[in-house]
Amino acid sequence: MEQKTVFSREQLDAYFASYVGMEGGNPAAAVWFCDSTPHPWVESLVAPLVPREHPVSWDDAYRGKHRQSMERWQSHQKIARIMAAARARTFGSSLSECDWKHYFDHYLYAPRGAEFKLSLFPLPAHLIGQTPWSKAFRGQPALVPKQRYLDLCRGGRRFAFIDDIRRRWRPKVVVCLGERHLDDFVHAFSLDDAHTSDYILQPADLAKTLRVLRRDGTTWIVCPALAGASGLTSDVLLEAMGRYLAGWLAPADFPALRAVQTV
After folding, report:
1. Tens of pLDDT, residues 185-194
2. Helix, strand, coil % over all residues of the chain, rounded to 5
3. Rounded CA gap, 176 and 198, in Å?
4. Would the pTM count as exceeding 0.90?
5. Long-range pairs, 207-216, Cβ under 8 A, ≥24
6. Coil, helix or strand for 98?
């Protein structure tokens, strides 16, 4: 991660005000998932910095390139489980008709699929190995210390870009992953004046509190992260989250299922 070119604050601000650091999918989809940082990291912080004007998607070329590593992408697999459950509830069908593995292998973040994945901050929280942030971005005064980078995203054009694309695409629902990032979700999506309520997700003996915010035709659901002792980690919770999400969705929000493909 050693850098040869020193990037100015202005260069990085312009670069971050784009789809860089977002897993992508279909921004016209009814469902968005918003995490604090991207995973996995597939961008390059090398000169020249060219803002990503269009989101990536998991098309056939992308899947072919990353097929060997995708089996380790647990957070995305959990999102696939949520979406498969949401689809089953929306269509009144059983999960066996499109289980999470099939959804992950063929539909998740597809170019014309049912979801879009974005991140508040463009750089990963955890870099390759155990490299400290200060070492990874040594010589980049706009990124070190890390707080300077976070302030750039919050006060610069990154958060403004996120609010702009939400206004442009108007998703039905945005699932925000990680309640400890609530303040940043509120900031990025301009939710200070949103109508707010809580919902208790309790599929069995586990109860998770979801913060639900509504504004301008979109609903934000701030839920626990997809990892950690207090997160949405069990199959029961993930599928319950999908069924709850289905309350905002219609069959037209999902692409038609195609036959299983052999790769």
Report:
1. 999 999 999 9
2. 40, 15, 45
3. 14
4. yes
5. 208/232, 208/237, 210/244, 211/179, 211/182, 213/186, 215/190, 215/191, 216/167, 216/170
6. coil
